[in-house]
Every structure is written in C-alpha cells, then in structure tokens.
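Input.
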Amino acid sequence: MDILKSNFLNLTIGMFLVASMWSCESEKTLEQDALSKIETLEGLMDKAKAKSIDVTREETTLWFANEFLKFAKWDENNQEAVTKTFGYERFYAEDKDSLAKALPDFEREKVIQILEKSIADLIKELNGEIKRRPVHKVDWQNAKTSDNMIVSNGKPSFPYDYFSKTVGQPLTNTQIYNDHLGALYHGGENLYPVDHDRAINSFLLKEDGTFDEELMKELTEIPDTNIGFLYYWSMGIPEWVEKQEPEIRKGRSLFTGFDIDNPVARDLWGKIIRKTGELTKGKKVTELGFVFANEPHWYSEKGHWTYRYKEMNGISKYTLNNFRSWLKEKYNNNITALNANWDTSFANFNSIEIEVPIDSALQGQPVWFDWCRYNMHRSTSWFKFMQDELHAVNPDADTHIKLFPRTFYEDSRSHGMDFEALTELTTMIGHDAKALGSPSIRPHINSDWHKNYAYKWDGMAILHDFLESVGPNKININSESHFLSSGMWRDLDTRTSYVRNVYWLATLMGMDANMGWFWARDPDGSPEDRLEGDLDFFDPGLGGAFAGSNNMQPHVSNEVTQVMYDLNSFSEEIIELRKQPRPLRLFYSETSAINTPNYMTQTGKLYKSLFFEGLPLGFVTKNIIEKQDNNTWNTVMVYKTKFVTDAEFNALQQFLNQGGTVILDAKESISMNEYGKKRSQKLAAENGKLIVLENASLSEIKEIGLAEVSNLMPDVIVESDNGQDFKTTISRVVKQKDGSYLVNLLNVGHNTAKIKVSLKSGAPISIKNLMTSNPVESEFNLASEEVLLLEIK
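Output.
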C-alpha cells in the first residue's frame, strides 16, 4: 500500500504543487483567463441562440465555472479550514498543508479546462462540424413514475441529484436546487451529535404518545413543488424508549439503532410510519418513493468489521424466541430431527440456544444455515411490517430499500439480507451501487482489478443484472451513488471519461434515478454545517468525505450533469436498449451462497467472463422460474452450486420440463440439500436439454453456454481488439422499427480498442454517431472509457 499511496499521491500532489508555485500575479492570470473564457463562451452562446442552437450544456458549464471560481476564492481565504478537511481523511492527512495550499489554483485550472472544452464543442456546432441533439431536461415539478420508467414531458427521464445535499440550506434555494445540481426534494441523512437525525426518525414520537411538531415540520414544510423521496432514518432511538425497554439496542446494526424484533420498537415505528404516511400522501416529494432503510445489514459472524460499530454484538430475547418459533415450524415441531441435524441435545424448542455472533468455522453446517436463513427471514419480516404499516394508510405509496451492494456481491451471508425477497417485496428496486474509479486508498482493499480495467465496474454491474432479473418491471433507484468517491477510493483529479462511462453504463443497465455522494458546498463556498469546526458525530464515512470529492473538482461536477443531459436526451434509445431479453441466465442459489465460502467470488468470475459477449446477462432463481415467463430466456448455467433446497431443485426440473436448457458444470452441482445431505434425485432432460459437464473449467462452460444462445446473438457483429487476451468492450444492439440498428459501445479497459462493425448478412452498412450526427467508418478506434451511441443502416 505504501508504494501505491506514494505513486498515487505523487502524481496528484505534483500537479497541485505546480499550480501552487504561481505567484499572486499568476493567480490573477488564472482567474482572468477563466473570466476571459467565460466571456468568449457567452458570446458564442449568443450566436448559437440566434441560430436556434440549444445551449443548455453551455449554461451548465458556465454555472459550474462561476461557482468554482467562487469556491476557489473561499478555499484561498480559509486555508486553515481547508487543511482540516484534508486532515480528516487519513489518506491525505500527512500532506494536508500542501494540498490545501494548492487547491484554489487547481480548481481554477479545471474551470479553464471545462470552459475550453465547451468553447471547442460549441464552435464545432456553429461551424456545422457536429450537430448535437437538444437537451431534454428533467421536469422537476411534473415528472411521474410510470411502468418501469420515470416520465418527464412525455419521454423517459433519468432524474439526478446529490444525496446528503448541503444540509442546512432551504429546499427553495435555487443555488442548490436547480438543473445543474439536480432538484429532487428529499429527507436524507443528517447526523447530529445527539443522533437527532433528519426527516422521518424515531424522535418524532414523544413519550406521551404525541408527535414532536417542531421535528415534524422538517417533513410537513417540504414544498410541494418538486418530485422527490423520503427516508425512514432509523439510526437513533429516544432515551425514553431505552428507559422503558433497556434491551432495545441489543442486536442493533450499524445504521439501525435498535432491535427490529423488539415489540416496543415495532409499536413506535408503526405509529410513526402511519402518521407520516398520512401526512405525505399524494405529495410530490414521495413520487420516487419511501426509502425504508439506509444500507441495512445485520452481520452476525465473529470477527466481522461491523462488530466494532456494535452491530449484532448479541441478540435479544425477542430474536432468540422468534428464532425458536421459526425452527419449530421448519422442523415440524420435531426436536429430535433438529438435534440430529445440529448434533445437539435440546429438550425442546424453547430451550434452544445459539451464540451470536456465530463462529464462521461453522459455515456449511446445519446450525450455520438455519441461523443465516432465519436472519434473512427476520429482516424481510421487518421491512414487510414497515410496508404494511405504510400501505395501510397510503396504499399507493412506492417503496424501496437502499440495499448495500457488498452484501450481495461479496461472499459473506451472515448479514441477514435476502436481496431477492426484499426486491420482490418493495414496489421499486433500491440500492446504492458503487464503482471504484481508481485503486483503493485503503490498504486492506484488493485493487487487482486495475490490471485489466480502467475502473471497477463489476460490482455495480452484477448487482443491476440480478435486481433487474428479479424485478424486471420495477423502477430502479440508486439513492446514494458512490461513483465519484467513497470511503474506499477517491482521486483528486478524477477522469471525466470515467464519470461519463460509469453513469452511462449504470443507466444502460437499469438505473432510472440516482442521487450522488455528495454535494457539501454552501453557496458561499464553505463546507456544509456538519463539516465545519471540530467534527462531533457518529458516521464512519462522513468525516473524511469532503477531501478529494467532487466538491473540489469542477470538471467532475460538470461532467455528471453533462452526461445526465445526454442520457436524458437519448432516453428513448436507452430504454430500447434495456428492453432486450436476457436469453442466457446464471442460476443463483441463496442456499449455496450461505453454505459456500466463495460462492459469489466464483459466480462473479463466470459473470465477468460472459459480460463482454454482446448480450445482456440475467439470473434465475427458484422464484424467478416459478413466477416469471420462462420464455424470456432459454439457457440456464449452473456453476459452483453444490447446495440447493428441494424446492430449488424442483424449479430447475420444472424449467427442463417446459423445454428449457440447463448446463451443469459438474456432476456434483445441485447434489446436496441445504444441510449437506446427498440428494438421490438427479435432473432429467424431459422436454428440454440437459448438459452435464465433467468439472468444466470456466472457459469450457462459457463456450458451451454461448453456443446454446448463438442463434440469439445480435444481427450486428461487433469485433473488438484491445491487444489483450481478455475483452473490455461492452456492446449492446437493438433493432429499431425502421429496420436500422441502435448500437451502444463502452470501453472499460486501459487500452484503445480496435472496433470492426458488420452485419451477419454481409450487407453493406452506413454508420452515424448519434452524439455528433457525423458518419463513422465500419472500422474505428474506441478509446479507454469512451462511450459511443451509433445508428447502423
């Protein structure tokens, strides 16, 4: 890590220090240069308007240019405060003084860069060298949720904003809520020293059963002007509740500050949910739904990093008794069967005990499976309770959960989160998918992905493909997108090509709305209230979040809005690309995920090997097979999946009975039940096709899987050569009503890829770049992180 940090910081600080060597006169030159370019751009915009050329993109560049010139001045005049912000992030702390000194001129230089690009683009359009499609803005007042999409002025729309947005500023402040930064209204995160968090929280209800009207005003006084979403923020618990129920925090989690099995907690939250559901019924701020939780998880295994944050340091009597009842039902009230399975000697179900956190050495044993499955059951039960309470008073309310991506794509399953059940439960898909734009700044985070890819895309991608497979007709909302920075990574000079690529890819894969992390500048340039002075609150991520974030990078903040403008302008094309079927599916088994130490690691390898083959990937589960139209796919691949329940096994057999194709990577696949007992049954081809391989390698099962869907590959052939033995070009193709083809290409590799496009039929083609309206040859180069949207005739 020391070498990585040295190389990483040397590049950035070296650039910063070059800027900091400018004299006072040089500083004036930088600002004057920026102001001169602003004047040039404004003049070009006047000419463009006279020719009826849309200048929405340039208006945003101007806005960010002026804002960041103001921010640079504030940073220059408040060096001590800026130094503190760098000091709060341990990765930058050692160099906080030099970084703070260099920051103002760095910001001015980046302002100049975005202005120069904007000037060059507009000159090209004025000269007829390119023709851009006019921007289709989000209608922040009237956008509506519809079937599987958000609609604005008759077109699909992708709203964008920032989560945890400069707390303390009124929602009516147009310097914060506008087309440039986004204008969604919401009750988001606001952590104070006493844990009195903002929006819908447990402090709304007082001990006498009445509601705190002052706190409630934060909800009721949200203007009914713009669309938005609301949070049920469950981190704190009032002191009067603790006095009434001393065990209320036993079994708490990182962002849920109480025991979800406690009847007092359920009574408290039931009243709050019903009251707030009634008060906000029909309000625009709920158009994008109610978020039931912030990154919920209940990791319950020994040695997990969440233990130091008091997560699942034990379980309450309520949790234990509920577990006993669950076991009683699962084992048909047969304690002898449970004892035989667990190798225990409990007298009855009421005497069952379990140590939580549970020892991970027990993974693969029945007690491990039963606890992990029950932990998922109880969290799903909690969220069902919340949704039932809300729908009792507001039946049309949309709901989602900010699912924590790592709890899906990492291997551990002691966290109690059943992503499939929760996505089925809520009316919308919810999460906070992330990506890493650069190698991690944390020594314990593996950054081997950087050998092959320009950024870490796979966690975000596999999460989207799974959730979209479970809920194919649900709106997908990322209520805290960590594409720009996170506790794991940040880069003081983030690439605009990365910003464009990752937002485009996420939207292509299903993201309908996103709230980025994070906007923390007040209009005068100072950091928001929580980040001023000596920080005094509980949040493992917020304290050091300002340093190295988009709040210091005009080029990044500007590019977020620019790419969202383009996505909204081509929203109909994006929706068409999304509609393609997913003929090749990976079988996902929660049973194997619980019992197998590396199930998701192995699944991820197969997923990545297939991701660049030109077809959108999907997943199937028992529930998907039973509940969805099986004709939307034709081949299921079973990989490294030894443990399945009888119900999962039967679902695969049902798919074969209906004529589907199943590929097993080995005879051992699906050979065990959830408790590791050998299954006597074997799959039979019946009306379908069953392919059983002999311990197939990754490349072998990939080749066979692709062969099964070869007749379903797109009519447009996209050949890509990046000089490596692995692929990095993502291609999606859809045939349009007029017979032409829409082709989207994204390169997530380090190298430029040589692209050759042709038709299966061999017919001659013409290609147009829809972003510029210019013709494209059938062979061309696709730069690292470049995005192209093409029309082929």
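The CA atoms of residues 302 and 357 lie 5 Å apart.
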